[in-house]
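ARCHIVE CARD
Drawer: 12
Card no.: 0347
Subject: one protein chain, sequence and derived structure
Cross-reference: see card 0346
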Amino acid sequence: MARYTGPKCRLCRREGMQLFLKSEKCLTEKCPLKRRPYPPGIHGPRKKPRLSIYGMQLREKQKAKRIYGVLEKQFRRYFHMARRMAGNTGENLLSILERRLDNVVYRLGFATSRAHARQLVSHGHVLVNGKKIDIPSYLVKEGDEIGLKERAIENPFVKLSLQKRDSRTIPDWLSFDESKKVGKVLRLPERKDITYPIQESLIVELYSK
């Protein structure tokens, strides 16, 4: 299972925006992007280069990959899947990324970040319709119910995340039963549900060359 293991704050600095890859740290003054709001590198602050069309397309693709924690091979596979679906390819792509199980676990508030959610899934703590699913890239469907094993709910990091869940808004395509600690997929995500500043049309242009 391939994943990025390098410094996460470096990715935020490269994209020039907070990708919220380190949960709590991103909300404090310790966030490196607030102290050094320029791309990483040994040369320090430099004049912002004027990007070519290809450069803008590449940055949008990299931004989407890094937000959802997906590497190139898998991201390209998602694009081809989205292109075969009916409707707008870019919107289909973002919908597929949102439907990943690790993203849904994060969205429901079980985890403090997508990396934390990915770990919960891969360690077998997540249940979908009562069955253990340990594949972070599993795509949820309408009507699916997502929860955690009882032992996982008692985990202090999960408890902390659930306590702070109110600070993160659950998207309209999901619901959460507070008493049962179970989330449900009400419908498939649409473009209006995704608030990240991603220009999906540029990603489509890049892969369509």
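Annotation on reverse: The first strand starts at residue 126 and ends at 128. The chain is about 40% helix and 10% strand.
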